[in-house]
């Protein structure tokens, strides 16, 4: 019975399938006859003016076209024919017209594909079906628009397309929409369109996320910080050095290092280039800086910690007083800030459109506060800090607010930290044994640089290491470097991502790291 | 007549003894009260209406009411307890050595003006002064020299990020201020001079709200320290204040006529004396006016006397 029933069902299914197949075949039979007839009825006038371009393999015989950048499109080019290669940002078909917005970095322009004597309906249809984020070549005439095109950076002109070729098509389904990823963050505004892209979604699809105008600006500015750092220090007579990233022993305290297998033994990833900077000083390089990756195996999931970041480190020998170095670093920052303010104002305003923040303020020369004075200021605001106590992160933020209210500066230097809270190689203050020749620098109330005069005397260094309970045999190579004479020196290092984040007033360091690494993310 | 409950006599709320002139343009109606108008509906009080007397009377009448004595005794008790409490509190106060209100009232008559205890300590050790680079506060350089024997004003100059570069005039002033070395042994006040894009010519911060105006800075500096620039005790202190206001107006003035008027008042104040307001030595008004004239760049429009005075100021600065 059961088998019979099943077979009956199966038979029914078979019958249905056959029916469907028959219908399909019928449809197929009628369809191809349909298309050619319609084509023959209406000759495609723009055949050969649109389509998918064969893959560009650098064929030497291919015709050479000169492309115009979108940022250069303006009224002066009115009436001219131009070729533009750009990304299709959005497209929207409306009857016989198709409006396309092309995007090139932060610049956008509107393209109109309009049915006319030279443009066929089929071409318009093809244009409207090109998926978002595809790269297309468009040949078009620049035309002035009667009223400004809203939402385009080139608002005074539009392009009237005559040819449209797809160079590299995008998948129609995007993991995130570029518009969503670049929507401004305005707290307190409860708009209907409040779609936001999650930080993790952004990072998983970083290649798409990076296409937003904001991210373009952030990473251009980041490059600017590096360039200004290099230029400013080179002008001051510094030498750029490169230090190894695979090291045999932990350079600082010893904790928080990544272990890597190194042939038959193991090695560590450098968590600071400090030892090598100091060796360069001991080797008479006088003033050195280095830019490179720094690794910290800290399992802290905060808005400001990364396990790999770009360190900008410098070390400098001085004559009499470590303030020579401290002020050099302070002036370096002033120069970087001034350079950013003067040369990157467009990038800053672009970022502010999406992530509004107060402009970064600073003083020239930078404000230097003594630790004791900072304690006094904090006490006036009801926070008491012991003489040999370190500042906690919330207290640092409070101090930042106090300083900002009093001096209106987001950048300042805090000098003369208590000796007890600094590493063993920090030189003590000659006038106050509880104090040390060390300094921290702050941006918007967050510490960005921690530096000090280092002890350059091997005997004293050993003594201090013992005082801190550090196994001297483990840092033997560090002490070794100073045995054959070393000039007095001081230095410090900053994290590039953190500086950019704080300069722009962003809330997360992952926004300023192109491919951030944290305890929970090693991809992409 | 003895009624069970006696009530107080009350004054009538509405006086009824006057005649009302009735309008003639309306119908006449017979007075509905007329019948009774001859007889009093409220018995007029025979005695003087004193509530106190009445209460006394009432109480007298009530002597025989039972429970009255009891109530009286109770009240007496309460009063005694209160007196006891007062004694305790006053002894407590003596122990804690808090002056009683009566004593303090005796020491300070209400109308007496309390003089501020003026010494240099009233000034904070550090003072942040924001100043507009297009209106440099020249008063500071004069003040530095005038006060040098009492207070050492050391100036650290900062350029705020809202200003890209310092104009020449401000830069000159900055050098003059920063290079000034205070005498040893005098209390030092550190002034952080921040060149910043602000609306007024200068502003400074004591608490959270900035106080703007260079003359207000001068008022603060002169009044919070017991120096020879303190003008609180002087008889013509409001004339000085008025001169300070005038110098503020001079900096803000836009037309030549306005400026000429203000300079005229300065001239009158100077008269033929050596310093403004006929003084023997330079005062706070001189500092303010000097700075205003220099800022408004009207040194060449001064009258002969004023020009001589201006020269004296310049000599002071150069010294």
TrEMBL record, chain A:
Residue intervals of the Aminoacyl-transfer RNA synthetases class-II family profile domain: 219-524
Composition skew (Basic and acidic residues), residue ranges: 1-29
EC number: 6.1.1.12
MF (Gene Ontology): aspartate-tRNA ligase activity; ATP binding; RNA binding
Catalytic activity: tRNA(Asp) + L-aspartate + ATP = L-aspartyl-tRNA(Asp) + AMP + diphosphate
Region (Disordered): 1-44
Keyword Ligase: yes
UniProt keywords, alphabetically: Aminoacyl-tRNA synthetase, ATP-binding, Cytoplasm, Ligase, Nucleotide-binding, Protein biosynthesis
PANTHER family found in the cross-reference section: ASPARTATE--TRNA LIGASE, CYTOPLASMIC, ASPARTYL-TRNA SYNTHETASE
Similarity comment: family membership: Belongs to the class-II aminoacyl-tRNA synthetase family. Type 2 subfamily.
Protein name per the record: Aspartate--tRNA ligase, cytoplasmic
Gene source species: Ceutorhynchus assimilis
Automatic annotation (TrEMBL), chain B:
Subcellular location: Cytoplasm, Cytosol; Nucleus
A Pfam short name: AIMP2_LysRS_bd
GO BP annotations, alphabetical order: translation
Domain of life: Eukaryota
Main location: cytoplasm
Coiled-coil parts of chain: 68-102
Claim: Protein biosynthesis is one of the keywords in the record: yes
Cellular component GO terms, alphabetical: aminoacyl-tRNA synthetase multienzyme complex; cytosol; nucleus
SUPFAM superfamilies in alphabetical order: GST C-terminal domain-like (SSF47616)
Domain AIMP2 lysyl-tRNA synthetase binding stretches: 7-43
Keywords: Coiled coil, Cytoplasm, Nucleus, Protein biosynthesis
Residue ranges of every copy of the AIMP2 thioredoxin-like domain listed in the record: 127-208
Name assigned to this protein: Protein JTV-1
Record organism: Ceutorhynchus assimilis (cabbage seed weevil)
